[in-house]
Amino acid sequence: MREVYFIKQNKEKWLGIEQVIQGKIKKNPDDLSSLYINLINDLSFAQTYYPKSNTTVYLNHLSARIFQKIYKTKRVEENRLVYFFKTEVPLLMYQYRRYLMYAFLFFILFTSIGVLSAIYDKDFVNIILGEGYVNETIENIKNNNAVGVYQSGSTWGSTIGIIFNNIQVGAKLYIYGIAGGVGTLFALLSNSVMLGSFQYFFYDYGALKESARGIWLHGVFEIFAMVVEAMCGLILGASILFPRTFSRFNSFKKGFKDSFKIFLSTVPFTICAGIIEGYVTRHALKMPLLLNLIIILGSLAIIGFYYFVYPSVVYKKTNKHIHDAIL
């Protein structure tokens, strides 16, 4: 069958499914299941005969959306907050997983720029971090206390200030996405270049190992959350630039709703990072190295699993439940 005829034959049905997804037409769970099966059949046909076509991309996107619509009609018996973190956010992470990849690629690129800039321009670190901070840290390194800057102030006061500052940075990474994602990339560039030059600064003074023992105690949660927040900004920007079959306003509403939920999921990690930085990092060099490694690698395992691995697990489990219910 020619693709043009295939589209003409099914166009009205697909538009009707869009109306259902947007809530303009109400359907009960059984009808939704029937629509899902029908759409999956169309998708399978398109993947077989038009694998590189925009039609296949469109049907795949439409299938994902009605899949979510079906799942949301199920009665949620568990606590709403538990459901949010256990199911809703992971499903959104799976749906937008390529944006997480984009965010990490930009993060690596921008951090590398910070490292290279610090290597080839010895004044770059002073410009980025501030001369006062650099001089203080050099003195700390000479005194065998590379993380001395984290030991100033009270634990409680430092923790509160750090948490609010980190949430503010994350909010900028996200909200700036409204400028088509360009604002998010600029904010990510600024923070990543700072990180890259910061790490090279310690390497240049022979204190990379000591600094890493302290910085990455809280840095794993803080930096990983920052990348996820940048991902949210990119989703928001893409919803404006690429509305697909939606009107631009409806696409923005959907993009904002989905990305905001993902953004909220980073807040607990940001708070944990602030608590660790305020209470634990100051003792980094006095702690046994093994304890440093347990906290750093444990944090990486937790947040990496939640945002990279768990979404696929939830998607496959949910998909199996839906298919079992349909069949």
TrEMBL record:
Entry keywords, A to Z: Membrane, Transmembrane, Transmembrane helix
Record's protein name: Stage II sporulation protein M
Lineage, highest ranks first: Bacteria, Pseudomonadati, Bacteroidota, Flavobacteriia, Flavobacteriales
Residues in coiled coil: none
Superkingdom of source: Bacteria
TM spans (from-to): 99-120, 173-203, 215-242, 262-280, 289-309
InterPro entries: SpoIIM-like
